[in-house]
Amino acid sequence: MGRPFKLTDWQIEAASLMARTGCSLKQAAVELGQEITSEDCRALFNRPSFQKELWTAKHRYNIDLARDPDFNQDSVVGKMLALAQKLEEEGANDKAAEVLLKISKIRGWLGPESAVNIFGELSQKDLDAIRETVSKPQKVQ
User: Mutual orientation of helices 9-21 and 48-67 as an angle, nearest 10°?
Assistant: First the structure.
């Protein structure tokens, strides 16, 4: 069994950069000013210690996003609108329309007030009385 591999500072920063931007290890290394071959990138990327660091960095980033004070309903709706626009540009109009429908529900434009109530002003007591009347056996004449 080999000795444990300790990640260097730039490798930890590369994992963090990959988690935040979705770039590859090679791209992260270039951005951090590190010269690394494709073979060394593959070897580093496949190391369990690097995979664990990348997994941790992704979760840390997600936690930071969720705790951001600017993360609210408006930011979610804005992101959804941007994604709907992208879907529309790609020709997926049906999917874009679904996103817009979901936004309408989030905003409260669609909901219980847009549904038709077939029971009118009946109370629960009235509904129970009707149910009891209907469930009684009927006499055939």
Answer: 50
8 Å CB contact between 53 and 37: no
**Is residue 44 a contact partner of residue 50, using CB atoms and an 8 Å limit?**
yes
For tokens 């590369």, what's the residue? Answer: 14
Q: What is the pTM of this model?
A: 0.59
Q: Where are the alpha helices (DSSP H) in 1-141?
A: 9-21, 25-31, 38-46, 48-67, 73-89, 93-107, 124-135
- The range of the structural domain enclosing residue 20 comes to 9-67
What is the spatial distance between Cα 60 and Cα 53, in angstroms, rounded to a whole number? 10
Tell me how crowded residue 118 is: count the other CB atoms within 10 A of its CB: 6
The pLDDT tens digits for 65-107 are 889 998 888 998 999 999 999 999 999 999 999 999 999 988 8
Q: How many domains does the chain have?
A: 2
The whole-angstrom separation of Cα 103 and Cα 106 is 5
In a domain, 100, yes or no: yes
Same domain? For 83 and 54 the reply is no
